[in-house]
Design a protein that fits this description.
The structure is a homodimer of 236-residue chains. With 236 residues, chain A is α/β, with parallel strands linked by helices. Chain A is built from 7 helices and 8 strands. In chain A, strand 4, helix 6 and strand 5 form a beta-alpha-beta unit. The two termini of chain A are 14 Å apart. The interface between A and B is medium-sized, with 33 and 33 residues.
Chain lengths: 236, 236
């Protein structure tokens, strides 16, 4: 059975609706999204596999989810390091950064050096609003994510992938296949090209909204904020 | 070993500091507080003991924590009902209420009737800023909480208890002993009078802040947002 997905335009509309008629604040949504990501990392890469996690954050909401995830990971006992080269001036992101600074979580400028000193990477660079080309300084980061043998968990989309069509046909990102992907609220069409471990997170979407946008809310277990959902051809 | 507690004034100062120098928004703190409460309810009263949960919400932040907890409980599979007689006009509480209404969670006016149709009660009426007397319409609610044989989980304080001195010496609330108590961030002095199951929640306090306010951050396990901490004379 094919997995139902939400295209880029529909995902943007859903996001807007969550923050307007559904009355969620961006603070709230980002806290819950980042919490989901942290739980997926805990599942894919438990503390016993190494505590060091490098979180690569892009300039927008995907980066914000990464900042929140990093904070939760700290409290689980991980040692996060943040690469956040294009810091947003938005007040929310500044606050999320401050919360990490208060935990003495280091922010680093040199991704190449940082990747040599971590056990796991969180790719929170680009999300469902990405299209077009990868801007500086991220091409070298995507290249490193593509080349590394370390496990990578991507937030909502493997960065550089087209939301609808998946990986670029050639060049940068064309052979980037993260270890895990956390689809927030609903999987995007790119999951049809994904062959790693796939999780859905964001346990706050009402049944009515899921119906309106025609996606399935998976069966979460217990108090989990994520659920592993196989992609095409996979069995759990 | 005595448990370290945070007096009413110190708790208010901590709350202010979290939202100023620590850069948390009330939205964020309330989301995490409510999440903690929902996890404690799941622990004390798993779904197998009955899905119906009546959440009694007061007019302030304690009530807001209850609204958030109710939403998470809905997603875990509970059937929450909300008693929220003094709705705040504050925009945040209105949004939290809307999020529940979108899930078709009922808001009821008659607590006495509602208590006859539930399996568990969450007391989110008064928190650490409570002092003085219980105002209308809450005296009858406190009386019902005191009289019921149903399990009750209180948020931060058993409502009507003095934050420092515990239960009133006589009259309303003097024999109210909830089944469980979720202390948010740090236990208040009233825990020295509490004999039920005690949890600490709010896994976002930095080690520096805990040191400054002289309380212990308990050892949370895994991804849990709560941890059970024995009170005086208890062993786990």
């Amino acid at each position: 059975m094919a997995i139902k997905t939400l295209g880029a335009k529909a995902a943007a509309a859903l996001d807007q609706e969550l923050m307007s008629t559904c009355a969620f604040s961006l603070d709230q949504l980002m806290e819950l999204a980042g919490l989901s990501v942290s739980q997926a990392v805990y599942r894919v890469h438990p503390l016993s596999k190494g505590r060091r996690v490098l979180v690569a954050c892009g300039p927008g909401n995907n980066g914000g989810d990464g900042l929140v995830a990093a904070r939760h990971l700290f409290f689980y006992g991980y040692q996060p390091t943040i690469y956040y080269p294009k810091r947003s001036k938005n007040e929310l992101y500044q606050r999320l950064s401050k919360q990490l600074e208060d935990l003495n979580v280091p922010f680093v400028d040199d991704f190449q050096s940082a990747i040599g000193q971590t056990d796991h990477i969180v790719d929170a660079i680009f999300g469902f609003s990405f299209s077009g080309e990868v801007r500086e300084p991220f091409p070298a980061v995507i290249q490193a994510l593509q080349d590394t043998k370390l496990p990578v968990t991507s937030v909502d989309a493997p960065s550089s992938w087209d939301i609808e069509k998946g990986p670029p046909a050639s060049g940068l990102g064309s052979s980037f296949m993260p270890t895990a992907l956390v689809s927030l609220s609903a999987p995007k069409p790119l999951v049809n090209h994904f062959t790693g471990r796939h999780f859905v997170g964001g346990r706050f979407v009402s049944p009515l909204i899921a119906k309106k946008y025609d996606f399935d809310v998976p069966e979460y277990q217990g108090i989990d904020q994520i659920v592993e959902v196989p992609v095409a051809g996979q069995k759990l």
